[in-house]
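Field reference: "sequence" (input) and "structure" (output). Example, Reverse transcriptase Ty1/copia-type domain-containing protein:
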Amino acid sequence: MDNGLFVCQVYVDDIIFGSTNEELCKEFGNMMAKEFEMSMIGELTFFLRLKEGTFIYHEKYTRDLLKRFKMDDCNQLKPQ
């Protein structure tokens, strides 16, 4: 059986993992759930990306938050 590719990213208390083999994902999720209290929130729909090396790009997340709280038409605050 081909084991496939498995990728796991850990950032503070968040874990994102995936595989070309669905069974690897299930097995990893089960192993983690036995060891840690965790919740599986499902398939990843978007991911914050790194921009210019060290800056985290939050534009999509920020726009989604503004839309969610009906603030997407607000004026932008200009830095002094």
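The mean pLDDT is 80.
The chain has two domains: 1-40, 44-74.
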